[in-house]
Amino acid sequence: MAQHRPAVWDFALSPVARMRRLGRRVHKIARAHYWFPHVPLSLALAVSGAFIVWLGIRFQESVLLSDFPQHILELRPASLPYVLIGVGMIIMSVGLLFRSRLSWIIALVLTSSTILSAALLGHSYSSHLLIYYDGVLLVALLLAYHRFDRSSLAAGTLFAITSTLMLLIYAVFGSLYLGAQFSPPIKDIVTAFYFSVVTMGTVGYGDIIPSSREARLFTISVIILGLAVFATSVTAIITPMIGRIMSRKAKRMKRSNHFIVIGSTPLAYNTYRELKRRNQAVTFILPQQPPSGEVDDADLIVGDANSLETLRQADAVDAQAVIAMRVDDSDNAFISLAVKELKSKAKTVVAINDSKHIERIKLVQPDIVIAPEVLGGELLAMLLSGEPITSEFVAERFLNFQRPASPKPSTP
Predict the structure, then answer these.
(1) Parallel, antiparallel, or unpaired: how do β-strands 209-210 and 182-183 relate?
(2) H/E/C letters for each residue in 153-191?
């Protein structure tokens, strides 16, 4: 079996295809699947957050840590949003390590807010540096959107804690800053903390009342934000828990006597749909999450089909057939070899996109080789030139690459 592998590597590939193959090899050798791009993006987001926090603290020239909390009222409100954004970016960088989609969305919002604030309010060297750095970070986050596809319980819990903490800081410092506009006035951090918790929880004892328009608007903002944080935090925690329970149930389902379709090509999607229409059990392996509604969740496995672990997860050993229909012909050949390495009895079906690869694919000895694009071109040429087309010809040309059966031993 191993003797045919070098032949697959000898395909006459274009420079772009060779670069893609080289990139996949480097990606595999470096085990980049485990750390790229979420780890570099997490570090970059944490650096940006730390820089913003440092700028916010530097802006507080009148407050010394040794004087805390005596001079807490000297805090400048203008620097508080920057500090909160920076802290939020640092905390969300931890969520990126879990490849959390929620953390990715919040990171986009915080990074965009930083760029917009620096562009509108800042004209210093630090502001320009922040715009360029976070601009590159924002583009990198957008390009890597497909890698952040997990609903992590840890990331959801982290979001709930972070959002609650940031809202509490906002409420405490805001009530301290507007303390004289309450009745009775809020003069110390303990009273500010008490008022913030009561307002965020919408309890409303009525012992501290806002007496000015600014104080009332501030109180309204704390109530609205408190309700929003509570609702989103519950959703962020409950959704991953339900997903984890459902995934455990799905893992316990043993697949057998089913078809495995591999690839994100139109031919693969059509094959999946036609098998489902005939009430066949199908497992679809895709490199990334498809658009919603394209594939039933119970039929879907997201992963690298060249990996033996992914094929084992799809129960390829007990399948009727494994149908490789990826764009790269060499990937389809390797999938066929991987199925044989599992010692599976499933038939291997390999789709070919380039007629130059037919003879080389046959060296891998798949059970069936199909070349629909090659057949389509031949049929069109025959139709235009007036040659007769029969059903026997189509069946022969479409499946004429079937591996011949082993000859039976002769009897004396």
Answers:
(1) antiparallel
(2) HHHHHHHHHHHHHHHHHHHHHHHHHCHHHEECCCCCHHH
Shared-domain flag, residues 96 and 225: yes
The answer to whether residues 49 and 168 belong to one domain is: yes
Residue 140 included in any domain: yes
The last residue of a domain, from among 223, 249, 275: 249
Residues 264 and 155 in one domain: no
Strands 321-324, 300-302: parallel, antiparallel or unpaired by DSSP? unpaired
- C-alpha distance across the termini of the chain, in Å: 31
CB-based contacts of 362, cutoff 8 Å, min separation 6: 369, 401
Q: What 3-state class would DSSP assign to 347?
A: strand
The enclosing domain of 358 has a CATH number of 3.40.50.720
- Is 283 a member of any domain? yes
Q: What is the CA radius of gyration of the chain?
A: 30
Reported as a single tens digit per residue, the pLDDT across 366-384 is: 888 887 777 777 777 887 8
Rounded alpha-carbon distances, angstroms, from residue 300 to 53, 119, 244, 256, 332: 43, 44, 15, 15, 19
Contact between 257 and 114 under an 8 Å Cβ cutoff? The reply is no
Phi-psi region of 386 (alpha: psi -120 to 50; beta: other; left: phi over 0): left
Element (H, E) at 343: none
0.85 surpassed by pTM: no
Give the pair of three-digit tokens for residue 265: 């090509």
Q: Is residue 297 assigned to a domain?
A: yes
Task: Tell me the two tokens of residue 241.
Answer: 């828990």
pLDDT: which is higher, 355 or 262: 262
- The domain in which residue 272 lies consists of 259-398
pLDDT over 90, % of the chain: 17
Top-ranked range on mean pLDDT: pick from 26-30, 80-84, 188-192, 353-357: 188-192
Report the share of the chain in percent with pLDDT over 70.
81
Mark whether 229 and 288 lie in a shared domain: no
Q: Are residues 244 and 352 in the same domain?
A: no
Q: Is residue 128 part of a domain?
A: yes
Residue 66 scores a pLDDT above 50: no
